[in-house]
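Re-run with default settings, no changes from the original entry. Doing this only to confirm the output is reproducible before filing.
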Amino acid sequence: MSLEMRLKAMDATGVDIHALSETSPMVYWATPAFGLKLSQVYNDALAAACQKYPTRFVGLMTLPMQAPELAMQELERAAKLPGIRGVYLATAVNGKNLDDKSFWPVYEKCEALGFPIFLHPTNTLGADRMRNYYLRNFIGNPVESAIAASSLMFSGVMDRYPKLDVVLPHAGGTFPHLIGRMDHGTTVRAECKHMTKPPSSYLRSFHYDTITHSDSILLNLIRQVGADRVVMGSDCPADMSYTQPVQVIERINELKSDERELIVSGNAARLLKVV
């Protein structure tokens, strides 16, 4: 609610620039027309925040993806606003996975604009079975990331738009850990006979944030996909966030200094075109 409070917290944690985005539930619950209006109001406010503090904030626009034609309209409009550097999408839209053909024009336009797409779950699959113990977050969110990445991979989105940058939340969730199963599955399952490359070859088609809450798992991810595909995340302001996101990277002694630099700043600066 307060940019000044956010800046104070950023200064206290060593964060120079914050990519602002609208969190769950986004705007997909609204009617198409109302979803468009909400997106416009939010994106305009986002641009105003970036204008007020142009060296501290960049913005990730929100889109009314429940109406892809309106999402395209707002994407083209908001792309011209100051400080907007990317798009924030859910891992699924009202029950539709991201391989849905109606979403492909959005991907094509983002690739053409050079806008990265940052993903985050809203409603998790199987939430009715994960009501207790906060399992919908502990388990549901990482699974959502895997479903989103797999849908984009198996459907051909990542082949059709090879320059599209997609950032997976929660360190890619279960996606990188299940890649061996998918590699084997494509050799024995008719549902995947269309695949011309193994799923593991797509690991570096995505970017991954650092939200693992485990130094060893994060290090494994970095070794699996490469330091140039990992960006520092905070998950702010959720209670599952990193309170010291920079320290998470700095305390991993096995990382080389150039790897740390990429993860803490270089990769995000490249994706968000921050000079």
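The longest strand covers residues 84-90. The chain is about 45% helix and 10% strand.
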